[in-house]
Design goal:
Helices cover 73% and strands 3% of the residues. By secondary structure, it is mostly helical.
Length: 359
């Protein structure tokens, strides 16, 4: 007979190994991929509960420090741009690049400080390319800058095993997609379909890898939440624009396709949005991702309702305005209430590990 056994955090395939006795050994097990992130948090609470807030403050301080340092570099060049010769601009950026890369190697890419220096080195690569283009006026388009930037730093991103680094790379790719669309194709909202599909793919790949051995570094929810929110929001925006076009019709002045792909883009966005449900509720159940999907769905349905019926409801004088407003508010409230009930109908397992075995 099949049953469900809840396995505690610390019961993994390394259960017969010597048990960790301090925070350093626990973090080593996590970095080596021998325990999942849930086990890391459990063991830290057991061995060093009073130090958790200090770890959090240390990470936040590190992120803020790196951000302020890079912002200082940018403002330094902006303020002294006219007074600096070209060799000095490129030389200082290269100095920062080499320094960050050396510090990343020195601290190690498995350490938060080393990963932060790696992110800084990747940002300096983009700064070098931008300054080089400004000095020598290469004539390259903006999308070429972001394309080459993403290609050049990709090996560092893979080696770093840092979701912060992957976040930077994903953001650069998204900017590249928008830039090449605007500069090479023209106006139109079809590019949002590509962006939604790309970011949803990033979400799916991260969740597929995060539980595998050797990928403990990918087991962070914040990365999932960011790109899942981007994916469903972008696809929902296309669906909303598509609904507006169906209801009222409109032409984009510089659309190279003359609206020929508006309907396919809308249909594909519906499919992408629906697949977001499959990922967040079925394949990789995640409560926050499910909440994001449900919230975006409620907003989308409310917007579609107003697009199709607002003109009819409010076009009846003052009485119609009042009754239409009350009716619209009731419908929207009902949509959000339905979203809450829909979300509550799905149960998310809070256990860290669930195994199905034969009794």
């Amino acid at each position: 007979m099949k049953g469900i056994i809840l396995v505690p955090f610390f019961m993994t395939d390394t259960a017969n190994d010597p048990k960790p006795t301090n925070v350093g050994e626990i973090e080593t097990l996590y970095r080596d991929g021998k325990i999942p992130r849930a086990a890391l948090q459990f063991l830290l609470m057991k061995y060093a509960p009073r130090n958790l807030w200090g770890r959090w403050a240390d990470r936040v301080s590190l992120v803020v420090g790196v951000a302020l340092l890079l912002a200082g570099v940018i403002f330094f060049f902006a303020f002294n741009w006219k007074d600096m010769p070209g060799w000095q601009k490129l030389g200082l950026i290269n100095l920062g690049l080499v320094t960050c890369a050396a510090c990343a190697i020195w601290r190690g890419l498995d350490h938060p400080a080393g990963q932060s220096f790696g992110v800084g080195a990747s940002i300096f690569v983009g700064a070098f390319m931008a300054v080089f283009g400004q000095i020598y006026q290469t004539g390259a388009d903006a999308f070429q800058l972001f394309m080459m930037w993403s290609i050049l730093i990709f090996p560092w991103v893979v080696l770093s095993k840092s979701l912060a680094h992957w976040t930077l790379w994903t953001l650069i790719v998204v900017i590249f997609l928008y830039a090449i669309w605007v500069q090479q194709v023209g106006d139109g909202f079809e590019i949002n379909v590509v962006v939604a599909l790309f970011t949803l793919t990033v979400y799916g790949l991260q969740n597929a890898l995060r539980k595998r051995k050797g990928f403990a570094w990918a087991d962070h929810d914040w990365f999932s939440w960011i790109w899942f929110a981007v994916a469903v929001s972008t696809s929902a925006s296309v669906i909303g624009v598509w609904a507006f076009k169906i209801r009222y019709g409109f032409d984009i002045p510089y659309d190279p396709f003359d609206g020929a792909y508006h309907h396919p883009a809308g249909i594909l966005s519906v499919g992408i949005f629906a697949f977001g449900y499959v990922l967040a509720f079925r394949l990789f159940p995640n409560l926050v991702a499910a909440q994001i999907w449900s919230l975006v769905l409620a907003i989308l349905l409310s917007g579609i309702f107003l697009i199709f019926f607002a003109e009819t409801l409010f076009d009846a004088g003052e009485l119609g305005l009042l009754s239409g407003g009350i009716f619209s508010a009731a419908i929207i409230a009902g949509i959000f209430w339905g979203g809450i009930k829909f979300l509550n109908a799905h149960r998310f397992n809070k256990a860290s590990v669930v195994e199905r075995t034969n009794d």
